[in-house]
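Repro:
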Amino acid sequence: MAETEANIKNSYARLAAKRADICPKMLQKDVDTNTIERIAEVMVDEHCDYFLYPRTGQQIAITVNNSQIEALLIVPAVHDFADSAYQVASYDKHVIRLSYYGAAYKPERLRYDVAISLID
């Protein structure tokens, strides 16, 4: 049952990846680049999750153009990308959460650009 539920979430996330204002999103890198760029994303809720399946041994690094957004890895471990890149220990679903971390109230539709680099 849990596997079926995970497959449904992944299918929804693949479709959401085509839209800027729907989360969570499943990401896949293009063959010719190590960076996944999402330009003009829109955070409607308090956070947006990005799913990806990096290879064992890769490092994940995140760059966000808005200092009011915090980037954390929440699955399979907790890691703050502000401190350093994350070393992938196993081929598994990795969930990156971008959250509003500003001092003022969050705008209803917060726009941002994010780059997720997978370094061999």
